[in-house]
Amino acid sequence: TASYIRNIAASAKETEAVTVWPTNEEPYVTMKVRKPEGMMVLEPSPKPWLVSGFPYVSFRIRWPKWTEKDPPRLDMVVDFGDEKAVIGLTPSASNDTKRITLPDPVQWKPNHWHEVTLDLRELLKDRIPEKVLKARHIRALRFVLSDNQDKTAVDLQSLSIYRDWKNTDSVELEAYDASGMAGTVACDSAGE
Length: 192
Description:
Mean pLDDT: 80
Radius of gyration: 19 Å
Number of helices: 2
Strand content: 35-45%
Shape: globular
Number of strands: 13
Structural class: mainly beta
Order of helices and strands: EEEEEEEEEEHHEEE
Distance between the termini: 35 Å
Helix content: under 10%
């Protein structure tokens, strides 16, 4: 996660993205803001990615000091270069018709990790014709925080961009086992 996220130069004075390395969980990036607005950006490396090839974006997000009373606004902006799509990650009182609402909104709780998985093809299909979307490259994902009067931080962890699984795909793991589970075999519900 941390290797892809950086401050945007234009807002570096207002926003700080800090990688936190806790001992009891995996690292995460915290977005600290000094004003009610701030932004973090993920720029794919080494080049933009094709929506049709890698339509899924997953991440864990936490708002340590979330409040339902007058909540801040958090959006994920999908930047195609010449066009942008705004996906609302928090509820909004405004009638912003350009903002895409999630079919299964995050049920925010303070200091709780929330898993979010987005199918960008599905979310953007009513805004961008399928033929056009199929050829679109995403240049950046922006996490934009606004109306954040208390200047609370937001934490982002395990951000992944991926494609559909195929029947022939496999996962290979090479890991050090200190859990005592060595020799455990994975199987399906039929025991195979």
